[in-house]
Every structure is written in structure tokens, then in C-alpha cells.
Amino acid sequence: MEFNILTLCYLVASVTFILGLKMLSNPASARKGNLVAAFGMTLAISGTIFLYRNSETGEHLHNYGWIFGGLLIGGIIGTLAAKKVKMTAMPEMVSLFNGMGGACAALISLVEFNHLSKEFAINNSHEFVAAHQPTILIIVLGLIIGSVSFSGSMIAWGKLNGKVKDLSFAGQNILNMIFLLIALGAGIWLVIDPTQGYLLYLILTLSLLYGVLFVMPIGGADMPVVISLLNSFTGVAAAFGGFLYDNKVMLTGGILVGAAGTLLTILMCKAMNRSLVNVLVGSFGGSKNAIGGTAAGPQGNYKEISVSDAAMVMAYANKVIIVPGYGLAVAQAQHVCHELEKILNEKGVEVVYAIHPVAGRMPGHMNVLLAEADVAYEKLEEMEQANEEFKTTDVVLILGANDVVNPAAKTDPASPIYGMPILEVEQAKTVIVNKRSMKPGYAGIENDLFFQPKTSMLFGDAKKVLQDLCAEVKAV
Amino acid sequence: MENILTFISANQQIIYIVILMIFVGIEVIGRVPSVLHTPLMSGANAIHGVVIIGAIIVMGKAETDNYLALGLGFLAVILGTLNVVGGFVVTDRMLEMFKKKK
Asked: Cβ contacts of residue A287 below 8 Å, gap of 6+?
């Protein structure tokens, strides 16, 4: 009876996962979808704790103290971290949580192997070992994928918060491949001869190294794609846990996320008009040095504009389009930005925002950020819509965006971002660019836009500049 | 060859689930607008936290004198819970903002 109720719990949980994902992909139902999935998860977890019975011995679970202790500690830290994190740091938070899931899967494999090898020590007859070979295979695969996901996510997290710098060296891809192949080889060997327990630690080490080296050379601008990919890896790792325990809810949840995550990764790449292979092999990372060499100094002349002049130009414009980018996010300038929008509105200036699909560090990053500052939904325009409006716009104010407004994506076939759809800001009458310096953006390439006659540069931290702009516009 | 065929028929239920779930996963998010990519990724991230169930089982089956299994299992439960709880809370926080401006 109890076991049947558990099966029912798992069934309901699986359905809530599917429903939750479905609802998450529609703006109107997204929040409810998240709650639906959370409800299913709670059901599956409490069902497991109280109703699970060991399939061999029929025993209930024990060590409740440890289990509840772990749930409590994890729950408190998780809630606090998720509540406290700044909106701008959301992407790295997702990466961090994803890494935790990967580590969890890897630890399960370690403990299960430890458990099995104890049994092998008692009974190492050929039949007994052979019967457990499929289990060993699942343990090994779960360990590899979980570890890669963990160490990769940690590096992605470090990169997004600026603790880890890009690193690539000649032959890195080959070395990486070798690590992975040795790990897989050791895995196969371990399946054939499960008594060679030390191999498991070799696999663990190599997988962790592989995850580090896999993410290291990929440029920060591509981190969202990498996180999405690692997210689907963790899904697959969770599914291996489902194989291991013949647990249907882990299986459905894991595979669901594995498949949806992979599709999401591909959709993200499409938004940048690049292929997944291109992102992973790191054409950005690779070509960065070459291009950085040829265009080390600024080519041509750019002109600077003072805050008061910029304020004047904007206050007397009919229509201003703001293009936010990562600079806005790092400076935490979303609230001041909304302030400027309101002040301009009072002066009779029409203000909208043009949101590039991959502006910031994650798709939708800018939407979340501006929504936090109470910017009205209708004021956020998607790329196609904005591109039609630039022609009739007096002033475009670019706040820390770079690659998404780089005309080279349209005009220069040699550029690494050639073919990426961009915001065609150069069609507006005046372009004001706020950046901290003339340094190239994340893709590491020069932006011709900055040297065009209609463009003026307004250097400084986005928040500081916007505050000054607000004061100046008010005074006009 | 023989082995593979036996394996497939012995595990056909699981194989069916895997195949069907791959299609469901792809279909279900096929029309997501790019604005929702981040919250969706975050929500999916929370869902794969279902791996916590494996951690609970490992923990609950560990012999009380096997400190390696207890220690690692305990760590796994903490990390898995972080993934689940943190994932859902972060997603909710993101989506809360989408709702406000209606």
C-alpha cells in the first residue's frame, strides 16, 4: 500500500514537472508553472523520505537525523542565497545551483560504488560481478557527467562574477579530448573489472579537470549558452540516478531537463546566429587574440560629449531609445535609468528601450533587470520592432552595450560576430554611447559605431553618468 | 548483439520513458519567447534537482557505521537541497518581476 502511494506521488510529480515546464514557457503562466513544479518536487521528496522501501530488504530508510539535517541546512542556505542575490547576479546564481546538482549526482555515484565494492569484497564470484556490470556502467556515467557539470558550472560562476579569467593555450582542445577519452577508457575498464576501485577516483579527477578546461577558454559573453548546456548535463546525470534506483520521477525529471535544456541551448545559439559547435570550440576565444593584436589601439577618431551637452540633446529630442547592455547590469543602474526615463517623459520626450535578445549575460537578462526597476512592459521593444523605429528616432542612448550594436555583424564577413542580428542604431540621428572606456566588449572586437560622425562617447560608470544626466535634464 | 537485445527487452519500460520524455521536453518548450529563456533555464535547473531523491535514498540506506557513506551522502543531501530550493526561489524571484507591471 505504502509503496503504491509512493508510486502515485512520483507519477503526480512527473506530471507537474512537464506541466511546470510548459507553463514556464508562457509569460502569463510562468510563475504558476514554477510553483506547480515546486509542489511536485516537495511531494516527491516527502514521499521518498517516509514511504520508500528498499527493494531488496523491504526496509524503510533510516538515518532520518542526517536526512533532515541536510535538508534543513541546504534549505536555509539555498533560500537565503536565492533571496539575497542581486538581480544582476542571477545568471551566476543559476550556474552555482546547477553545479550543486551536478556534485550531488557525482557524490551519489561515489557512495553507491563504495557500497558495491564492499559487496564485491565479500562475494567476487564471476556471476555476481557480471550481474552488477550494468549498475557500474550507470555509476560511472553518472559520475563523469555530474563531475563535468559541477566543475564546469563552478568555472562559469567564477567567470560571470569576474573571479576567473579566460584561459586558453595551444592544444587545449586536444588535451581536453585526451582527458575525456582516458576517463571513458578507465570507465570501460572499471565496468569490465569492477574490483579496480581506484579507477573511480581517476575518473573523478579527470572529469573534474575536463569540466574546468572545457569552460575555461569560452568567452564570458557565451556563458549563458554554456550554463544552459551544463544544465542539461545535470539533467542527464539525474536521469542516471533514476536508472540506478529504477526511480521513475528522477528519470522523467532528468531526461525532461536534459532534452529541454539542449533545445534551449540551441535556441540561445540561434538568437546569436551561431552554431553550438562554434560556441564550444570557442571561435570567439580563439580568434580573440588574433583580432586583439591587429586592433590593439583605437582606429580613427571618436568624439566625446559632456554630460550637460548629452542632457541638452536628449531633453530637446522627440524620441529617445535606450539600449541597455551588460554595463547597465554591472553598474546596478536600472533604477536610475528608469528615473531618467521618467524625467524625460515629463519634458515631453518619448522614451522606449530596445532589448537585444542576448543583451547582458543571459537572454532576458535586461528584461528582468528593467522589470525590477518598474519599467513598464510596453516600453521594452524587441529587436525587430526597435529596428524599424530607429529611423524616426532622434537620440539613441547606449548603456554599456557593445557587440549587440556593432555594425560589423552586418558589414564585415571576417568579423567573428558576422551574421548575428544587431540593433541598427546607426539609423538614428544621434547616437550617445556610455562606456567605461574604449576597451572592446566581451567578444573582444572593435566597434566601428564608436568612430562614426553621428556617435558621441560619454565615458563613465553607467550609474554615475545616469545620475548626472538626471540632474542635468531636470535643470534644462 | 544477443546481450544488447536482451538488455533492451529487459529494460523496455525505461527506454520508452526516455524516448517519450525527450520528445516531451523538446515539444513543451518549443515556442518559448526569448524573454523567458533565463527564467526557463532557472526553472529547469530547479527540476533537475530531483537528483536529491537519489541522495536521500543513499543517505537512508547507509549503514550507521559507514562514515564515508554517511559523510558523502549528507553532503549530497545538502547540495541537492541547495539546487532544488535555491532553484525554485530564484526562478520565483525572476518571474515575480515579470508579473508586477501588468
From this structure: A416
pLDDT at A277: 81
High-pLDDT (> 70) share of chain B, %: 94
Grid coordinates belonging to A237: 546525470
What domains, with CATH codes, occur in chain A?
88-294 (no CATH), 303-475 (3.40.50.1220)
DSSP of B12-31: HHHHHHHHHHHHHHHHHTTT
Please judge whether B47 and A21 are an interchain contact, meaning their C-beta atoms are less than 8 angstroms apart.
yes
Per CB-CB distance under 8 Å, the chain A contacts of B94 are 90, 368
Please answer whether residues A442 and A406 qualify as being in contact, where contact means their C-beta atoms are separated by less than 8 angstroms: no
Chain B interface includes A51 (CB < 8 A): no
> What residues contact A78, with CB distance under 8 A and at least 6 apart?
A97, B81, B82, B83, B84, B85, B86, B87, B89
What are the strands, taking DSSP E only, across A210-277?
Answer: none
Residue A26 is placed in which grid cell?
A: 508562457
**Global ipTM:** 0.93
Q: Is B83 helix (H, G, I), strand (E, B) or coil?
A: helix
Q: What does the domain layout of chain B look like in residue ranges?
A: 1-31, 33-102
DSSP single-letter state for residue A327:
H
